[in-house]
Design goal:
4% of the residues lie in helices and 60% in strands. By secondary structure, the chain is mainly β. The strands form five sheets. It has a 22-stranded antiparallel beta barrel. Strands 1-6-7-4-5 form a five-stranded mixed sheet. Strands 2-3 form a two-stranded antiparallel sheet. A hairpin with a 2-residue loop joins β26 (530-552) and β27. The radius of gyration is 26 Å and the shape is globular.
């Protein structure tokens, strides 16, 4: 009873809202309550445990609505990514206990830097659309909130071990003291994941540590979190050509092949990331609480490459002279480094009493990034310092918001959420354009308003939201006179749901209107690199259907199906013209947005043939996706349907509180499919030459594991 008082700050759990009310205070500030008019999906710790055998977080979210996932290595270990409603990771806001996680410069989320983080997660909330006000990168299609700050009142220990295809191993040790003297708790986790990957040489070596301690008294909670991640992966981010795909060479890897003979063995990505989080929560009374958290994230790492036949002048080095001959080129091994600091504070003041729930909060963060390149070897010798570029970037991000959820009658609730956000960039040069200095700032006002209805198992809502989003760091390299505009989004969401003891169903319709969305067009910037360009207008609209039923006690069915229309109203393509030089311009109207399928569906059959045994058949369908914004049938990903099977058997014996034996067979029908890719095209011989590249997924593969809880 005591621990529950400290976990949430309301007078009593909100009706039909246990997931939200049991969330820690700092997480509740950025999550949407059950009555809030926000499109959302909640995932519990128990749901995660059933499938957490070593694959990364996006793969654990695969059955949620409008989600498409992919993996460079082809088996869900190493670099993975997620799209929601066609929105890529740079537009999906991710927070860890309310603290921003997206990379401040690219705004991408690298889950590979959090190996086995799912083993420490107590709950996840996915918000589709703009969602509620949060911290960090602007939510331009979705938000993923992960929470680890649960209080474990009783001592525990766990040993989790998994083994599977492609020499994949996962080993996890977890332990917690429970409440010591009614005031202290300590939790720790150690994880190790290794895999050879489906793609040739696409190995992963991942390690992580999670440590959390808290002090609790009648009105206060002080918590410290430390989690560290280390990843070493062989590069597999080039994909494979259409020719290799058609020839059946699905596992080929081009990384490292510039080296004569065998591929370069250390063509790897190496990164260390340490997170320090300190939370303080004070409960003034059962209605009013205050939370603040300071954090510091340290990241450092590099990727190493073998580059053949490159000029010394490209690295600002004088050419060597051997026997009176000037050698202009050489093979090099280089490392591209990133050393960054990210720190700041989040806070929230939360009031809840009767029909009123009010939150005032905000955050201030600062990012300091150092980008530099090192040459560590040259076939014909290094003739000078090994660093050929060194530039710095700074970014500050501050926001304040106020949210009010007011119950107007027994059936109706009103919601208003107002956020002001200020972003400032200070960029001192780029790798290929060191003289380009950027200093700019953005101000965003992001209002959200809506109503919700609830009666006898019926729930409905209608909302309107506005969001603004700053460009990524790379967008500014377009040139001094071609600087990008910020992006804007207007989002309308309407949903209805019916819940009964044996069935539930729901439907959401949405319309997301973008202004000045940044997209790749093929246009080249001042230093010859391809850059994103603002497009005046683009739209996403669709309907998401979901439901479930338990007609008999030993069988349950769940599923979701999304239909959408994703269009760029006016699109200009730039194609390199090798015949005449320069680029050719082609205009299009009302074309599909890149990697935005019209249909995404997921469904699962759950069988419980006897006590403590569950057998799950889970399917996933994704319709065709275009590799660029031209809606060209020659540049697309084929539709696919994949079926997975899971078996979970639980038992209790002797000192074991619980033991779970799990078997997961992925892609049981051995479907050959590619959920991700890219295209590069040019004009030669008077014709457009299309070069498509794909990221194939593994055929039938398995993971099996045993989790022991003491």
């Amino acid at each position: 009873m005591m621990s529950c008082f400290f976990v949430f700050s309301q007078e009593k759990p909100a009706e039909k809202d246990s997931f939200y009310s049991l969330s820690p205070v700092e997480v509740k500030a950025v999550r949407a309550a059950e009555r809030a008019p926000v499109t959302k999906t909640n995932i519990s710790k128990k749901d995660l445990e059933k499938q957490n055998l070593g694959q990364d977080i996006p793969f654990l979210l695969n059955q949620t609505p409008s989600v498409v996932i992919n993996s460079d290595a082809g088996n869900g270990v190493g670099y993975t990514a997620i799209r929601i409603r066609g929105t890529d990771g740079t537009r999906i806001n991710v927070t860890l206990n309310g603290i921003p996680y997206n990379d401040a410069e690219s705004q991408q989320t690298y889950f590979v830097d959090l190996p086995d983080f799912a083993s420490s997660v107590s709950s996840i909330q996915i918000q589709r659309g703009v969602g509620s006000s949060s911290n960090g990168a602007g939510a331009f299609g979705a938000t993923i909130n992960l929470s680890t700050n649960e209080i474990n009142p009783k001592p525990y220990s766990e040993i989790n071990n998994s083994i599977g295809s492609f020499n994949t191993w996962k080993n996890t040790l977890k332990a917690g003291t429970g409440l010591i003297g009614k005031h202290f708790t300590f939790d720790v986790r150690l994880s190790n994941i290794t895999s050879d990957g489906f793609i040739d040489r696409a190995f992963s070596k991942l390690r992580s540590l999670y440590f959390s301690s808290s002090y609790i008294n009648k009105n206060n909670i002080l918590r410290f979190n430390l989690f560290k991640g280390y990843e070493r992966t062989y590069q597999a981010w080039y994909g494979i050509s259409q020719t290799d795909l058609e020839m059946g060479n699905r596992r080929v890897n081009y990384a490292g092949t510039e080296k004569p003979g065998t591929p370069y063995s250390n063509e790897t990505d190496n990164y260390w990331q340490d997170h320090y989080q300190l939370f303080f929560t004070h409960h003034f009374n059962t209605h009013l609480s205050f939370n603040t958290a300071v954090f510091f994230t340290k990241g450092k790492g590099y990727y190493e490459e073998y580059r053949a036949g490159q000029s010394y002048s490209d690295y600002n080095l004088p050419p060597p002279i051997v026997a009176n001959d000037t050698i202009l080129t050489s093979d090099f091994v280089r490392q591209l480094w990133l050393n960054n600091n990210f720190y700041g504070d989040i806070f929230s003041l939360q009031y809840q009493k009767g029909k009123t729930e009010f939150t005032f909060g905000g955050a201030y963060t600062k990012y300091e990034g150092d980008h530099y390149g090192k040459l560590i070897w040259a076939e014909n010798g290094l003739t000078g310092p090994g660093t050929w570029y060194d530039n710095h970037a700074f970014k500050t991000d501050g926001n304040v918001y106020a949210k009010l959820l007011q119950k107007l009658t027994d059936k109706w609730s009103g919601y208003i959420d107002l956020q002001y956000r200020h972003v400032n960039y200070d960029i001192n040069g780029f790798d290929d354009n060191p003289a380009l200095l950027i200093k700019t700032s953005y101000n965003f006002f992001n209002p959200k308003i809506g109503v919700s209805y609830s009666l006898n198992g019926w729930n409905g809502y209608l909302s309107y939201s506005v969001a603004g989003k700053e460009p990524n760091r790379d967008d500014f390299e377009a040139g001094k006179n071609r600087q990008p505009k910020f992006e804007q989004l207007n989002d309308v969401e309407a949903g209805i749901e019916k819940r009964k003891s044996k069935y539930n169903w729901g439907a959401t319709v949405y319309y997301m209107k973008y202004k000045d969305q940044l997209v790749l067009t093929g246009q080249i910037n001042d230093v010859g690199a391809y850059t994103r360009t603002n497009t005046p207008r683009s739209d996403r609209m669709g309907i998401e259907l979901q439901g479930g039923a338990t007609p008999i006690h030993w069988f349950k069915v769940t599923g979701n199906l999304s239909f959408s229309k994703n269009k760029i109203q006016h699109f200009t393509e730039y194609i390199d013209d090798y015949d005449n030089g320069g680029q050719k311009v082609i205009n299009y109207s009302s074309t599909d947005i890149t990697l935005s399928p019209h249909m995404v569906g997921a469904g699962a059959l759950h069988f419980y043939p006897f006590k403590n045994f569950e057998f799950i058949l889970a399917g996933k369908y994704v319709s065709k996706q275009y590799l660029d914004n031209t809606e060209n049938e020659g540049r697309k990903l084929d539709p696919y349907y994949v079926e997975d099977a899971n078996v979970v058997y639980s038992f209790h014996r002797g000192p074991l509180k619980e033991a779970n034996i799990m078997l997961q067979v992925n892609n049981i029908f051995n479907k050959k499919y590619e959920p991700n890719g890219y295209t590069y095209n040019y004009i030669s011989g008077g014709a457009i030459v299309v070069n498509n590249y794909y990221f194939p997924m593994a055929g039938t593969n398995f993971m099996t594991g045993i989790n022991l809880k003491f």
